[in-house]
Amino acid sequence: MDSAATQCQVCWRVRDNRTEGSSCAVWSDMQTFMDNHDVTSHSPSFSEGYCPQCTTLYHRLTQEHLYDA
Ligand SMILES: [Zn+2]
Q1: pLDDT computed for residue 10 by the predictor
Q2: For the stretch 51-69, what's the b/e string if a residue is b when 16 or more beta carbons lie within 10 angstroms of its beta carbon?
Q3: What CA–CA distance (Å, rounded) separates 56 from 1?
Q4: What is the Cβ-side half-sphere exposure of residue 23, based on CA atoms within 13 angstroms?
Q5: Vertex 63, ends 11 and 5: CA angle to 5°?
Q6: What's the CA-to-centroid distance between 60 and ligand 1, angstroms?
Q7: Strand 5-8 to strand 46-49: parallel, antiparallel, or no bridges (unpaired)?
Q8: Taking the model in full, what pTM does it have?
Q9: In angstroms, what is the span from residue 68 Cα to ligand 1's centroid?
Q10: Which of 7, 4, 42, 57 is nearest to 28 (CA)?
């Protein structure tokens, strides 16, 4: 009954919200996430989302697109 991790739909990094001793979320690539959480024995479930970097990039691109129109 593990909490589902969030996977960025742009860069495919996974939000590692189960890292102990860390107050802020860490976005790891899939391989790092697998190594940290030993999820090779079962398929982890991911919810769709966007990491902060891609969110910022998305807003920037959207705004530029709007301004360009
Ligand atoms: Zn991303």
Answers
A1: 93
A2: beebeeeeeeeeeeeeeee
A3: 32
A4: 0
A5: 30
A6: 14
A7: parallel
A8: 0.66
A9: 24
A10: 7
